[in-house]
Specification:
- This protein is an alpha/beta fold.
- It has helices at about 40-55, 80, 120-125, 150-160, 160-170, 175-180, 195-205, 210-225, 230-245, 250-255; strands spanning about 5-10, 15-20, 25-30, 60-65, 70-75, 90, 95, 105-110, 115, 130, 135-140, 175, 190.
- Helix content is about 40%, strand content about 20%.
- Strands 1-2-3-4-8-10-13 form a seven-stranded mixed β-sheet, sandwiched between helices.
- A hairpin with a 2-residue loop joins strand 6 and strand 7.
- Helix 4 runs antiparallel to helix 5 (about 160-170) and helix 8 packs antiparallel against helix 9.
- The longest helix is centred in the N-terminal third of the chain and has 16 residues, at about 40-55.
- The radius of gyration is 19 Å and the shape is globular.
Amino acid sequence: MSTPDTTQFSDSAVVTCEVLESHVALVTLSRPQARNAVNADVVAAMESIVARTEADPDIWAVVLASSLQDVFCAGADLKEVAAGRASSLFTANGFAGFVYADRRKPWIAAVNGKALAGGCEIVLACDMVVAGTNAEFGLPEVARGLIAAAGGLYRLPRLLPRNIATEMALTAKSIGAERAAALGLVNRLVPTAQVVSEAVALARSITANAPVAIQESLNVIRRAQDLDEPALRELTAQCRNRVAATEDYKEGPRAFVEKRPPRWQGR
């Protein structure tokens, strides 16, 4: 999805990145001949894009989409794995240069079609999911003698009931979009043609708010299942202090009193 104010800053042929209006970046997987399977080129592009979106103060939220209508991402390129080049699919940021990346900004997966194996793990590494009615999610690695080693085996049972996640991982069977939405894996379920526009709209509803407050809120949310109550209280206090030190902390109440839209500075 593009607008007249779009800026493209990725020169990769397999992953593109555009900065849209309203502080939203649209990242698109585009390796159609391989169903967006992850190879070394995708890894390099994703790692670069993560670094650049994190560093760009004008980007406050990111949408990750596919150029295809029937596939989000087929996971690892098994030709690379079969050739003994599996290590090329990983960096310090994990599989695809993405799944373990330290990201302060929210990422929304816009999923059309199949998100399987590593493709599903990329989705699970995002913070929210907008899915088309044709979307499909699964971890079929065991059917190939592999395991979902890019976060899927622990992220999926955090989002779904444990027994459902267990069945998916051990049977290699996927679930469709409607069931995924009913189980809470998907934030918004929309017609296929509206997936990217709906994901961008969700991102813009986020970027209407103060960016540092968004980032610090996300910091706590992401760790809510990993830390105990005292640690979470301490983390929340630290995040609140960082927010309180920003100009936006003053701007929000001031705009409310003056009955006008806030003018966020992101600092």
